[in-house]
Amino acid sequence: MTQIVQIKGMNKYFGKLHVLKDIDLSVEAGEVVVIIGASGSGKSTLIRCVNGLEEYETGALTVDQRTLTPKGGNQKELYEIRKQVGMVFQQFNLFPHLTVKRNIMLAPTKVKGTSPTDAARIADTLLNRVGIADQADKYPAQLSGGQQQRVAIARALAMEPRLMLFDEPTSALDPEMVGEVLDVMRELAREGMTMMVVTHEMGFAREVADRVIYIHEGQIVEQGTPQEVFDRPRNERTQAFLSRVLQH
Amino acid sequence: MAFQFDWQAAIDAIPFLLKGIPYTLMISFGGLAIGFVLGIFFGLLSINKRWLLRWPAVAYIEIFRGTPILVQVLFIFYGLPDIIGGPIDPLVAGTAAIALNSGAYISEVVRGGVQSIDKGQGEAGLSLGLSRTQTFWTIIWPQAFRRMIPPLGNQAIVSIKDTSLFSVIGVGELVRQGQVYIANTFTAFEVYFVVAIMYLVITLSLSLVLRAYERRGLASV
Predict the structure, then answer these.
(1) Would strands A58-63 and A66-67 be described as parallel, antiparallel, or unpaired?
(2) pLDDT tens digits, residue range A186-212?
């Protein structure tokens, strides 16, 4: 199988704070990896390193056969990687001054040089796919949180990425809108998209993940299939974390 | 003897005073246009990561914001000719003073506007594969500019009024025209009253235009 992401001995610091410790992780094509852990454990930082939104200090990182060297070196490779990697943020980060459709058209036209006509067609198809074709000409602020996040997913998909990163995509949503976003992600996984998902949605993790990774204080302390991690956790910190989050 | 407002004197002064308005507007808007370019340039430099680029911008801003515009225009008009070896046209000196002075304030407006945009906006642009330049000009700048409109309007009004100081270097703007007229008629109250009204007409029109523009811009956010 092809490896999309390969991380070897990655270390990252915020000043003196050691946030990622000797991370070794690879993600294969079509795999859905869900990363769980307490706030501040480094799980978001880890996926933000994958598309270079965060720099790391030591180790090695390869994404889709391109190498991203430590300390933000190699800008050219970084831009190539970002073209291939989509990201969905907790706060959606849609562009408020552009309509929904223009949000989606922006990257294909600016980065790939797609013609506006083709980009508009891509946008229509994607909006249809995430179930909000009727909102194309609205501005983000006119949409509900769940709709905004679905637009954000469509926006990332417009670049036809090889890998999608999700950074707590449902954490900023009202409870009744979580389902509609998870549905889109579930569908994406079913279609074979390679995904790295940071989330607190344990139900989603159990159902969709091929592999669950538990991070504690910047270290991967446990990983395996959802059954292995959720039903038979070996590490006592994983057990403690799961008993806290699965209670409610 | 009670003071009586002489309406006829006020009305008679209008044609002469109106001759000053083109100069007032020319210096204000000419200076502001250059000031806007300076403001974008130095405002963006002032938030650059490299201190070597940031430092000169901060120096420019502090110097022209921290000294009176009257001193600046006197310096340009009376001081600079000693160096360049020839006189400077008062119109040029006035326009330059407005440009340099408003440029310093507009730099701060630009800095504030850009820094007010959420970090996530830039991250979203970069993660889609846009370059830093593309991210800035297509995502950050349009949003920042919208937030800059009210303080920019404020600066425009301040600068229009600042041009009244240039009567000291002999620019035939509104106040200067008033002074010349009064020297012959001794109707100071009436003339300065009309001068004040004329400034108010200019600044109020600008306020109205800006409000309309702001409403239109905000409708889409």
Answers:
(1) antiparallel
(2) 999 999 999 999 999 999 999 999 999
Distance, C-alpha A89 to centroid of its chain: 8
Q: Does B6 touch chain A (CB under 8 A)?
A: no
**CA B74 to each of CA B70, B90, B92, B156: distance values in angstroms, whole numbers, following the listed order:** 6, 10, 12, 21
In terms of residues, how long is chain B? Answer: 221
Check whether A32 has a pLDDT greater than 80.
Answer: yes
* Strand pairing category for A58-63 and A3-14: antiparallel
CA distance B197 to chain A (A): 39
DSSP per-residue codes, A180-231? HHHHHHHHHHHTT-EEEEE-S-HHHHHHH-SEEEEEETTEEEEEE-HIIIII
Query: Do residues B151 and B111 lie in contact, with contact meaning Cβ atoms separated by under 8 Å?
Result: no
Q: Which of A89, A90, A93 to mutate to test the interface with B (most CBs of B within 10 A)?
A: A93
Q: CA end-to-end span of chain A, whole Å?
A: 38
Furthest C-alpha separation in chain B: 79
Residues of A in contact with B138 (CB under 8 A): 106, 110
pLDDT tens by residue, B25-68: 999 999 999 999 999 999 999 999 999 999 999 999 999 999 99
Domain range list for chain B? 12-220
Q: Give how far B79 is from chain A: nearest CA, Å.
A: 47
Q: What percentage of residues in chain B have a pLDDT greater than 90?
A: 91
- Residue B136 and residue B121: Cα distance in Å, rounded? 10
In angstroms, the CA B201 to CA A234 distance is 79
Question: Is 0.90 exceeded by the ipTM?
Answer: yes
* Pair of tokens at residue A247: 């209670």
Structural element, H or E, at residue A119: helix A116-129
Q: How confident is the model at residue B221 (pLDDT cuts 50, 70, 90)?
A: very low
What strands lie across the sheet with A194-198, from one edge to the other?
A85-88, A163-167, A194-198, A32-36, A211-216, A219-224
Distance CA B197, CA B191 (A): 10
Q: What are phi and psi of B8, to 5 degrees?
A: -60, -40
Give residue-wise pLDDT tens across range A57-77: 999 999 999 999 998 778 899
Query: 3-state class of A17 per DSSP?
Result: strand
Cβ distance A91 to B120 less than 8 Å, yes or no, reads yes
pTM score of the predicted model: 0.90
The Cβ of residue B165 has, within 10 Å, a number of other Cβ atoms equal to 20
Q: How far is CA A109 from the centre of its chain?
A: 23
CB-CB neighbours of B132 under 10 Å: 13
Say if domain B12-220 classifies as CATH 1.10.1060.10. Answer: no
